[in-house]
Design brief:
There is one protein chain. The two termini are 44 Å apart. The protein contains 24 helices and 2 strands. It is flat. The longest helix has 24 residues, at 193-216. Helix 8 (155-169) packs parallel to helix 10, helix 21 (413-426) packs across helix 22 and helix 21 packs parallel to helix 23 (448-460). With 493 residues, the chain is mainly α. A two-stranded antiparallel sheet has the order 1-2. It has helices at residues 8-12, 20-26, 32-51, 57-64, 68-81, 115-124, 132-144, 155-169, 175-187, 193-216, 225-237, 242-256, 261-273, 279-287, 289-303, 311-324, 328-340, 346-358, 364-387, 396-408, 413-426, 430-443, 448-460, 478-486; strands spanning 84-89, 92-96. It has 5 domains: 8-106, Orthogonal Bundle (Arc Repressor Mutant, subunit A); 115-191; 198-285; 288-362; 370-455, Arc Repressor Mutant, subunit A.
């Protein structure tokens, strides 16, 4: 037995140290399962002395929810990376190696396996010599990355990616750019030679349209990977046609000289958020921009706000509201009502408009009808408050009560009156009425006769004895009173 060791409490509150090189070099290209196994094993190594013995393979696998074979496969992979050494296979035993000491020479990628790949990669990258470390990065990507179905990036596919990157960026291209492209395409499911060829064929078709966009922007730049990614986003995710994209690109060039894809992307993203996808919608939006800015300022004034620049308000609120079908008149009417109810921010107004939109209340007539119902509800609640001898204005909580009684529970107005009259006799408030109606709703009491019957039974029940109101009072001396406050800080909260 060891002379001294850490307690289990000390270990539980301690830390497992991980070299930063692990995160920068190994984590990005390693599947989550392999990473989890490596980190948990590192934790077991750090706590081995305090446990007296390390966990078994079966316990290890069960803790992480994997099979024993998964653990063995993972450590075979990490041995190839040089981060562990398999000491014994029966019983299975490993040793963790220093991360910073895991150089290319420590990794166990077969030279024969990638001999052809090495030659072909160097033939593609002609303006510099590929270093052993760069080769190791390629091997790590092909060996370490895998799709959920187990497929890995093939050497042939990676060579075609390298060739495409060189064609677009030059033969002196850095390997990190190649790795990034290969990782992105692999995550999308492109891992075989045929799949990469299919993607590049689609790129070839897209290149003609991307060239149109570049021309509209005043550029003769050759389409690259970034441009293809933007094009895919605009056409597939946002839903713009090439004609609309070119139209917007020309408007950017006219307004700001030679532009680029990043600026065009921001413009298209704003149009998309404002639900402006066709050329006519965009033209109308730009033509009426002054009106939109005026409306934004008027909304701000109605709410008691001031912004020197309302561009953000137009894009975030005004344009989407108009796209929903709300007119400027309706928006201002809703803003006035929000102001009167102390909801005086654009976010409050936006919530109100979205709520109305979900209920199909968009036109001015529909909103006036809705307001009429709200006003009638307020009058009915005001009458209830009067019966209860409560002198105050109707609140939003009162309206929520009413909507629950009538809308959710479907209670008859006569039943509500019966509950209110009973509460008035007892000198209680609106919360008591709500509790009484909730109790009736739970019992299935939904008719005036059944409500009156329930009240008659309630009145006939014997009253419970009231507690003695004559509470004995004790007088405290000045010393006792001081002791109360002296000992206050000793109370555990």
């Amino acid at each position: 037995m060891a002379f001294c060791k850490f307690s289990s409490e000390y270990i539980a509150k301690s830390y497992t140290m991980i070299d930063n090189v692990f995160f920068s070099r190994y984590l990005p290209s390693t599947p989550p399962k392999l990473t989890a196994i490596y980190l948990y094993g590192l934790y077991l190594c750090a706590t081995e002395d305090s446990r007296g013995a390390n966990s078994s393979m079966e316990a290890f696998a069960q803790t992480l929810g994997y099979e024993v074979e998964d653990i063995i496969d993972a450590y075979n992979y990490w041995e190839e990376q040089g981060l562990v050494r398999i000491v014994s296979t029966s019983p299975f035993e490993i040793q963790y190696q220093p991360v910073r000491g895991a150089s290319s020479a420590n990794k166990r990628f077969s030279k024969d396996k990638y001999a052809s790949f090495n030659i072909q990669a160097q033939e593609i990258i002609t303006e510099r010599t590929i270093t052993p470390n760069e080769y190791e990065e390629y091997y790590t990507l092909m060996e370490g990355f895998s799709l959920p179905d187990g497929r890995k990036l093939s050497p042939e596919a990676l060579l075609l990616i390298i060739k495409y990157c060189v064609q677009n960026k030059g033969a002196n291209i850095g390997y990190r750019y190649i790795i990034a492209v290969a990782q992105n395409w692999a995550r999308e499911g492109y891992v075989t030679l045929a799949q990469i060829e299919e993607k590049l064929e689609a790129y070839s078709t897209q290149s003609q349209e991307i060239s149109k966009i570049n021309k509209a922007l005043g550029s003769t730049k050759k389409p690259g990977i970034e441009e293809h990614e933007f094009y895919t986003k605009w056409t597939q995710r946002l839903g713009f046609t090439i004609d609309v994209i070119v139209f917007v690109a020309k408007s950017i060039k006219k307004g700001a000289g030679i532009s680029n894809f990043e600026k065009l992307d921001k413009k298209l993203q704003k149009y998309y958020e404002a639900k402006l996808l066709s050329q006519n919608e965009i033209v109308e939006f730009e033509a009426n921009k002054d009106k939109l800015f005026s409306l934004a300022r008027e909304v701000n004034r109605t709410l008691g706000l001031y912004y020197e620049d309302v561009s953000n308000q137009v894009e975030t609120y005004i344009s989407p509201w108009l796209a929903m079908g709300f007119s400027a008149e309706t928006i201002l009417t809703i803003a006035q009502n929000c102001y009167s109810r102390a909801k005086r921010t654009l976010a409050n107004l936006n919530d109100e408009i979205n709520m109305l939109y979900e209920q199909g209340i968009v036109s001015q007539n529909a909103y006036q009808g809705y307001q009429g119902k709200i006003q009638k509800t307020r009058e009915q609640i005001a009458n209830i408050l009067k019966k209860l001898n409560i002198e105050r204005n109707v609140t939003s909580l009162d309206i929520e009560f009413w909507q629950r009684w009538v809308g959710t529970w479907g209670l008859d107005l006569e039943i509500i009156d019966i509950a209110v009259d009973f509460a008035a006799q007892r000198g209680t408030n609106l919360s008591y009425v709500n509790a009484l109606l909730a109790d009736w709703h739970t019992q299935g009491i939904h008719t005036p006769s059944s409500a009156r019957e329930a009240l008659s039974k309630f009145k006939s029940e014997p009253k419970q004895a009231k507690p003695d109101s004559k509470i004995k009072k004790r007088k405290y001396s000045k010393e006792e009173q001081s002791a109360i406050f002296d000992n206050f800080n000793e109370i555990e909260l």
